[in-house]
């Protein structure tokens, strides 16, 4: 792995509502090295997608984003809307969760692919069309000419996801963010999409931030894992450390809840309770109400991320590993 291509430091994203301030992302820091795949993991509502949208600069209205986000030397938070627009799709690209809602239903696939290329590359419309045909073939779809003339509703979910990947990679970005790219697909197509992403990433030397709640996907593609809960990072480390030496009770619960092929159980394990509402949270461990190891200090103070693992870079935010609590 090379030096960090994406550096996120003290990122906070809040939404102002009539009921109070919602801390969707609460002071998180992580990096993605050149050629590395980092997986952002956690259940729905933990802040994964908001983190991605904050990095992409796509949040508007009631959102307040603070902190530092640096991509290959460019400080994203200081860029103008025009500069950010030129960066998005070019050096920084994203694959969204639902391809059917991410593509324009009244434009052909070809029109949407060619638009991206003309926006970011100094090429003619004819050259952009040839590049679009090449990209469609590269992501494993045949009948390129027919696909180029098709509308999104005329294609299957798996094909649309491949088109989204082709659009995201059209300008050979340094950094790709993939937000649950296999959620709506069946298992066979999921495996094909993951393999395709791995091949394209390796061939282009690209870095990837993959957002998922599926630990099977994490085991398949991740180099490094960041576990989020209620807007905070509660554990991070190499994929080996997270799977074979998990520290945080929440991470252990996620792994315990994962079905294992060949093992028969009457009932899958579930983590008790619910994620707390993210409005005006008090300083504490947000997982305390669901944790069987909860101590008095957990209810009064928020733990900080500390190094605690067999490998450098394995960090956990839990009072079980803080000497002051013991």
Automatic annotation (TrEMBL):
Signal peptide: none annotated. It is a peripheral membrane protein. Keywords: ATP-binding, Cell membrane, Membrane, Nucleotide-binding, Transport. SUPFAM superfamilies: P-loop containing nucleoside triphosphate hydrolases. GO terms for biological process: peptide transport. NCBIfam families: oligo_HPY. Belongs to the ABC transporter superfamily. This is Oligopeptide ABC transporter ATP-binding protein. It comes from Shouchella clausii (strain KSM-K16) (Alkalihalobacillus clausii).
């Amino acid at each position: 792995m090379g030096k960090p291509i994406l550096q996120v430091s003290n990122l906070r994203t809040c939404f102002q509502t009539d009921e109070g301030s919602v801390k969707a992302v609460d002071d998180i820091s992580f990096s993605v090295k050149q050629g590395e795949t980092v997986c952002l993991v956690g259940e729905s509502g933990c802040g994964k997608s908001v983190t991605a949208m904050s990095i992409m600069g796509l949040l508007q209205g009631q959102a307040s984003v603070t902190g530092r986000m640096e991509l290959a030397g460019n400080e994203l938070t200081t860029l103008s809307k025009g500069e950010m627009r030129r960066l998005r799709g070019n050096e920084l690209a994203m694959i969204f969760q639902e391809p059917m809602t991410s593509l324009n239903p009244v434009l052909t696939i070809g029109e949407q692919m060619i638009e991206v290329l003309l926006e970011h590359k100094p090429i003619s419309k004819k050259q952009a069309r040839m590049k679009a045909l090449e990209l469609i073939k590269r992501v494993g779809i045949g009948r390129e000419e027919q696909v180029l003339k098709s509308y999104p509703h005329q294609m299957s979910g798996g094909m649309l996801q491949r088109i989204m990947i082709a659009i995201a990679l059209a300008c050979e970005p340094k950094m790709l963010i993939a937000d649950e790219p296999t959620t709506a697909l069946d298992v066979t197509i999921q495996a094909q999409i993951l393999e395709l992403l791995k091949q394209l990433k390796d061939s282009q030397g690209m870095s990837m931030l993959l957002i998922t709640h599926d630990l099977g996907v994490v085991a398949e593609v991740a180099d490094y894992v960041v576990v989020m809960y209620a807007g905070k990072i509660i554990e991070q480390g190499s994929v080996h450390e997270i799977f074979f030496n998990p520290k945080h009770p929440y991470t252990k619960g996620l792994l315990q809840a994962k079905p294992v092929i060949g093992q028969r159980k009457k009932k899958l394990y579930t983590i008790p309770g619910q994620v707390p509402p993210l409005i005006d949270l008090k300083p504490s461990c947000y997982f305390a109400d669901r944790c069987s190891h909860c101590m008095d200090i957990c209810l009064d103070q928020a733990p900080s991320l500390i190094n605690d693992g067999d490998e450098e870079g394995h960090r956990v935010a839990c009072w079980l590993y803080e000497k002051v609590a013991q």
